[in-house]
Amino acid sequence: MNDVDPSALAALGQLSHNSTIKPEVLAALAALSHNDFGDLKMATVTVEDQGGYGIPLQQSRTGYPIVCGQALVTSVEPGDVLVEINGKLSETLGFDACMSMLANVRPLTLRFGHPKGTEQKLKYYGQRWRPFKRKLRMKTGRKRESVPVALHTIEFMDSGPLGMRIGQSAVDNAVIVADPLDGTQAARYDVKLGDVILGVGRHLNLQGKFGKTMHYLQTHSRPLKVLFGRPRTRQAYVDYYGSEDGPAGMAPPDDTGITGPLDEANRQSAARPSDASARASNVISSAYAAPRRGSVGGAAAPPPKLSNWKAPPARAHDPNFVPPPPPPLVSKGQGAAAPPPPLPGLGG
């Protein structure tokens, strides 16, 4: 066994109080260097009042209650494990008994731990992360190529909306087009903008099959397992926006759930969505539908582009400077545009 710093052994004695950690784990910890051991964190939280305790918990794959969101207590972070409740090991109590104690027993003394190296072992229930071993056919700029993706499976247990806004990518993949709303299942399970849905239920090869993906999402019963791919690109924008530069020069997501270059084909597609696109607009999360253009609270329409006028240079040093108005738009082969006719009943 390696030599251990005395201060590390002293801390180890504090951690072994009430047999919080198994003897074999203690032996393994004793063999760690001081630097490794210093990353082992234990936090104690006391709850005296009735009601909520401000720490979102979920069952980890190893059975421990694990913090699955931002806690109101600053000493507890997402990924921390609830090791002990009132001196009793959560591993011995079981997850259901732990949740019952948290709801009904006061006062509570909770001990949380987050040893180094256990983050990947203590993932939230229903998630399985895998490295970049699968390739995803995507459009990057003007060409299509295979991009490595990280895979993870999420099991949606609850009924109701999944909280995901889904659009159709340039290569017919189903893509998450906006970060999920806080508090929804999708947000709780770490779904992000740019994630690609590659499988639903037993259908695990839905790449490039947007219509089928939407059909399975709408008709599958719960629990529902969804296989996501996360492209290893700049903020995962490539597949959806078609460029690593993000949404520059692209139409913003509207109520059709589709975005793309501002060309006539896309305008017509957005105006008359296909069946699959129409399903995307109503899918899953009616609460997350973007406001229609021109509606109250929606994004204002962009101003028309004037081909024969450029904005004057800024003159911030002169507070009284007022830029001149742009000249009227003149079509090719024509003179100045005629003024609009007066409205009926207003004279002129």
Automatic annotation (TrEMBL):
User: Per the record, which residues fall in region Disordered?
Assistant: 240-348
Low complexity: compositionally biased ranges: 267-281
List the InterPro entries hit by this protein, alphabetically: PDZ_sf (IPR036034)
Compositional bias segments (type: Pro residues):
338-348
Query: Any idea what this protein is called?
Result: PDZ domain-containing protein
The species this protein belongs to is Phaeomonas parva
Lineage of the species this protein comes from: Eukaryota, Sar, Stramenopiles, Ochrophyta, Pinguiophyceae
